[in-house]
Design brief:
Elements lengths: L2 H16 L8 H10 L5 H21 L6 E4 L3 H15 L5 E5 L1 H7 L16 H33 L3 H12 L8 E4 L7 H14 L3 E5 L15 E2 L2 H17 L6 E5 L7 E2 L11 H6 L3
Parallel strand pairs: 1-2, 2-3, 3-4, 4-6, 5-7
Length: 289
């Protein structure tokens, strides 16, 4: 029995148990709705995409021709149309991600209007965009599956068993438009606790990968600009740990952290790091000054 037929039988069993009061419920329609709503929450998406990203990283380590492509995105509709086009053209969404860069969010998503890449946009803007994107991508799934269901109904009505079997197989092996999102958390928008709180919001929206940099949050500059001010390693490590704790608290044990350093391109520091002994992280940080 196919996965699709198994889903119908599962609902039919629930209906029979409920009795005559559920006579108006069509098990096939409910099964189709469940298939169209595969992901029940952002955390379901975060776990699914984290597994994909970890597998892709392992595949790349073994063979560097199996690289991934991350497509910049600033609106749910734009992301949806990109993934629909990719799937239609290539027949798969494998090794394609979406990337939410801080500069795009600042320039195109802030209620203050277009802003420079200096963490001046709202703290919640990236998390809101992650949620919006996955709403649109799930909608793309629902649309494509609905077309398959319609084709299946036509095949069944025409008693074309070969065609019905072919479409049923396509439903069973349907590839979702939901792909990993790498979300830019800039420099954390505050201290380690603020970083942790915002990370939780992004993960709950579905982000499986968070990118963070070691600049001072309220002095943040675009990576291409001069005048960057960095924090000592201990401060940055605290924020990285905050991200990991957020992933672990929410059950996404294999969430990905992209930790970027601007130390070599920075001209200023927040403070001179404390050195307890030669060669420790404070001493290493100060060596860049």
């Amino acid at each position: 029995m196919s996965n699709y037929q198994s889903a119908i039988e599962a609902v039919r069993a629930i209906k029979e148990k409920a009795g005559d009061s559920w006579n108006a419920i069509d098990p096939q329609n409910v099964a189709r709705m469940r298939i169209q709503n595969r992901f029940k929450s952002g955390l379901d998406i975060a776990q699914y995409t984290a597994d994909i990203m970890r597998a892709d990283m392992e595949a790349f380590d073994a063979d560097n021709t199996k690289y991934t492509q991350s497509l910049g995105c600033w609106h749910g509709f734009v992301g949806q149309q990109k993934l629909i086009s990719i799937k239609k053209h290539f027949g798969t969404t494998k090794r394609r991600y979406l990337y939410l860069s801080g500069w795009m969010v600042a320039a195109l998503r802030s209620e203050f209007g277009p802003l420079p890449d200096q963490s001046m946009h709202e703290k919640t803007a990236v998390a809101s965009l992650v949620e919006e994107l996955y709403t649109f991508l799930r909608q793309a799934d629902a649309r494509e599956l609905d077309l398959l269901f319609s084709e299946l109904d036509k095949a069944v009505a025409a008693d074309d068993q070969v065609k019905a079997k072919e479409i049923q197989d396509a439903i069973d092996n349907f590839e979702t438009h939901v792909v990993p999102i790498v979300a830019d958390i800039d420099a954390g928008f505050g201290n380690a606790e603020a970083t942790y709180l915002m990370a939780k919001q992004m993960i709950e929206a579905g982000a499986c990968a968070l990118q963070i940099e070691n600049q001072v949050a309220d002095e943040k500059q675009c990576g291409h600009q001069d005048g960057k001010v960095t924090v000592p390693h201990a401060d940055f490590h605290a924020k990285i740990r905050a991200l990991r704790h957020a992933f672990l608290e929410l059950g996404i044990d294999n969430g990905i952290i992209v930790a970027r350093t601007d130390s070599e391109g920075a001209g200023l520091t927040k403070e001179i790091a404390v050195v307890k002994e030669p060669g420790d992280e404070g001493d290493i940080y100060n060596s860049y000054l």
